[in-house]
Automatic annotation (TrEMBL), chain A:
Domain ABC transmembrane type-1 residue range list: 67-276
Transmembrane feature ranges: 7-25, 71-92, 104-125, 148-171, 253-275
Stated name of the protein: Multiple sugar transport system permease protein
Listed GO biological process terms: transmembrane transport
Organism superkingdom: Bacteria
Membrane topology, record value: Multi-pass membrane protein
Source organism: Nonomuraea soli
From TrEMBL, chain B:
A Pfam cross-reference name: SBP_bac_1
Matching InterPro entries: Bact_solute-bd_prot1, SBP, TAT_signal
PANTHER family, sorted: ARABINOSE-BINDING PROTEIN-RELATED
Keywords: Sugar transport, Transport
The protein, known as: Multiple sugar transport system substrate-binding protein
Organism listed in the record: Nonomuraea soli
Length: 283, 428
């Protein structure tokens, strides 16, 4: 290594690390720090210790519905939407008639932003003007009933997620060596066995990507519920509560930071699990 | 480094300089579109206005009004209405305009108390004679000084269609019992008696306000809003109990409906009446607007009668960081003139002029009735989210009222939760 190389590595890597510390870890730690204060953005900063966390857990009803909704969202995307995406990918990979048509129909929602999906969901689910009630003759308040709305919104979110997962798996399936399947067939494996024992394991890198995407989508969910009713009344999510408390006129920066810290801890749980899995692998 | 600039060097350089640029870009959350309205000759100083009048009609009316202000050049920075409100804290602490649009009452006092507004008591010594005491009180900070010039306002009342009521023979109720009897009759006639929507979170505040003022009076309401009364007080419980008794006559599935949709149901004669601000007229086709009438929410407790209403006042303040305070004060005096406000009320039939000197001869029938209603009211409240702390209104009251609308039966649990959060917020 020449001096020039070392210098470049030092500058190049150093800048990246400095930017990472400054832009990501700096604000993160600042949020954690602020979460122990009652700062309102204007007056002096008072340290109140863990009070915000106590208030959150004990006295702020939207908090627990947000935590439940976030976990529900994760479970729904992970256990319903993602397997469905895989199923559609497998079906389309069999070169059915019109598979191009199915493929584009399933993939089209992915090009929409979730906020737009939220507006479409309102056209479908609105109790007075929605398509669903008009067609079925029901009078259900799909978006207003807090025990119901999270489910129909997750269906709308899944509508988009399925296409996303499907296209990734489809690409993965196209790359699977056909001779593997032939070999399995010759060895007497039926289709299910061939898929679960032979094809699915070779998709491992794809699975990891899909898992990460699913977790990220679930934790960052925001736009769809915000477009529908600002994430209130049954559609609370942690990301919405952070925004509601910090960004809005309320300016409860300390309190909102505490919610953000909870979201950070949940995210870190998944990130750490994922990274340890990833680094353990080669050994 | 080597004298030759390589592509990598360039990228590094770009990264190094790009970062601060991105940060600078982030530090100004209120993205503003500039629509300068210059008047007459330059060189006499400029007054800037930060305006939330992003809708077409209010925007046009502010343009017209400032055109008549000739002593300074006026520059209007219009921001989307909700964005303006949500960023108000950062805006006032950052580089605010000289004059900014805002709301009367606690919401004004909150920022005045933080030292973010300029005392304009001297403006009031000049314009004070044009305003009633109620308007002056709504413009006065907790320290007794004035910080706000009222411009326009609109009353909240129960709106209905004259033609429908004539056809069915309904008459405006005078008491709560009359209201219930009327609602029963409407139900029998196949109408939904009371239009209702709370998807937006704030319309239910209007119902809470009026019931609280009818049952417990204006003073209790204001103290409750200021955090000085307990939400667990039996008086508050009575408000929710009364409301629950009326729920049967409210339009169901309110949490999935916007006020616009509820307003249209009134226009389409599917619902009988609707408690909302005068802006409900916007949801009526132009031709039907003459058919709108209203009555004030009926008496519940004879001790208070119908002496209070919600009539939120919009107006102007001067930021504490104003560069041209003298010009800003002159502009405020101009905005406080009846003639300026008349320009606005002519363009926007959903509002009334705040000045008592305003010319009401150009008012529509609805405006005339509105002005009459307000002049009869002894107390004018500003609406829940303007009469209390913004953080309490948005993070506690919106979810709580929605919870009540969804499940009207758990009043005790609800009030306990509100009280706990109120203590947290008001003592912080």
């Amino acid at each position: 290594m020449t001096i020039r190389d070392r210098l470049l590595i030092f500058v190049g890597l150093g800048l990246a690390i400095a930017a990472d510390l400054f832009l990501i870890w700096g604000p993160t730690l600042a949020s954690v720090g602020l979460s122990t204060t009652d700062w309102d953005g204007i007056s002096a900063i008072n340290v109140v210790g863990a009070e915000n966390y106590h208030d959150l857990a004990a006295e702020y009803p939207p908090f627990w519905s947000a935590v439940t909704n976030n976990l529900l969202w994760l479970a729904f995307l992970g256990l319903v939407a993602t397997p469905l995406g895989l199923l559609f990918a497998v079906l389309l990979d069999r070169r059915l008639r019109f598979s191009r048509v199915y493929q584009s129909a399933l993939y089209t929602p992915v090009v929409l932003s979730l906020a737009v999906v939220g507006f479409i969901a309102q056209l479908v689910y609105s109790s007075d003007y929605g398509v669903l009630n008009a067609v079925t003759g029901l009078t259900t308040d799909w978006l207003g009933d807090p025990s119901l709305n999270i489910w129909v919104v997750m269906v709308a979110a899944a509508w988009r997620h399925i296409g996303y997962v499907m296209i990734i798996y489809l690409a993965g399936l196209k790359a699977v060596d056909p001779s593997l399947k032939e070999a399995a067939a010759i060895d007497g494996a039926n289709e299910a066995q061939a898929f679960f024992r032979v094809v699915f394991p070779t998709l491992r890198p794809i699975n990891v990507i899909v898992l990460v995407i699913t977790v990220i989508e679930a934790l960052r969910a925001f736009d769809i519920v915000y477009a529908i009713n600002k994430g209130r009344n049954g559609l609370e999510l942690l990301s919405v509560l952070v925004t509601e408390n910090i960004v809005g006129e309320a300016s409860r920066i300390g309190f909102g930071s505490a919610i953000a810290t909870v979201l950070l801890v949940i995210s870190l749980g998944f990130i750490v699990t994922y990274l340890t899995q990833l680094f353990r692998e080669p050994r | 480094m080597s004298p030759h600039v390589t592509r990598r060097d360039l990228l590094l350089g770009a990264a190094a300089f790009g970062v601060p640029a991105i940060l600078a870009g982030c530090s100004n959350p209120a993205t503003r579109t500039t629509a300068p309205t210059s008047t007459a000759a330059a060189g006499r100083g400029v007054v800037t206005i930060g305006s939330n009048a992003s809708d077409e009609i209010p925007k046009k009316s502010l343009d017209e009004v400032t055109k008549a202000f000739t002593s300074h050049d006026v520059k209007i920075n219009t921001v989307d209405h909700n964005t303006f409100q949500e960023n108000i804290n950062r805006y006032l602490r950052g580089t605010p305009d000289d004059v900014f649009t805002w709301f009367a009452g606690y919401r004004m006092q909150f920022f005045a108390a933080q030292g973010l507004a300029t005392d304009i008591s001297d403006v009031w010594t000049e314009i004070g004679g044009d305003y009633t005491d109620a308007f002056k009180a709504a413009s006065t900070g907790a320290d007794g000084k004035q910080y706000f010039v009222p411009f326009t306002y609109y009353p909240w009342a129960v709106f209905y269609r004259k033609s429908l009521w004539q056809e069915k023979g309904y008459t405006p109720p005078a008491t709560l019992d009359d209201l219930v009897a009327l609602a029963k009759k409407m139900k029998a006639d196949g109408l939904v008696p009371i239009a209702f929507a709370d998807k937006d979170g704030w319309p239910a505040m209007g119902t809470f306000d009026i019931l609280n003022m009818r049952i417990n009076g204006y003073d209790f309401h204001i103290n409750l809003m200021a955090g000085q009364e307990a939400w667990t007080d039996p008086k508050v419980k009575q408000v929710f109990d009364t409301w629950r008794g009326l729920m049967d006559y409210h339009q169901p599935a309110a949490l999935g409906r916007t006020w616009q949709e509820a307003g249209q149901s009134l226009a389409q004669k599917k619902t009988g009446m609707y408690l909302l601000g005068m802006f409900v007229a916007q949801q009526f086709p132009e031709a039907d607007r003459g058919d709108i009438d209203f009555f004030t929410f009926p008496e519940v407790n004879p001790q208070f009668g119908t002496d209070s209403i919600d009539a939120p006042i919009d107006g102007y303040m001067i930021s504490s960081k104003a560069k041209n305070v003298e010009g800003a004060k002159q502009l405020l005096k101009h905005l406080g003139q009846a003639s300026s406000q008349n320009i606005a009320t002519k363009l926007d039939p959903g509002t009334l002029a705040a000045s008592s000197k305003a010319d009401t001869s150009g008012y529509s029938d609805l405006q005339k009735r509105g002005a009459e209603l307000v002049s009869q009211a002894k107390h004018i409240a500003q609406f829940l989210d303007r009469d209390t702390r913004p953080d309490f209104a948005s993070t506690v009251m919106i979810p709580s009222l929605q919870r009540f609308v969804g499940k009207p039966n758990d009043i005790d649990g609800l009030l306990k939760d509100i009280e706990k959060q109120k203590v947290n917020i008001f003592t912080s």
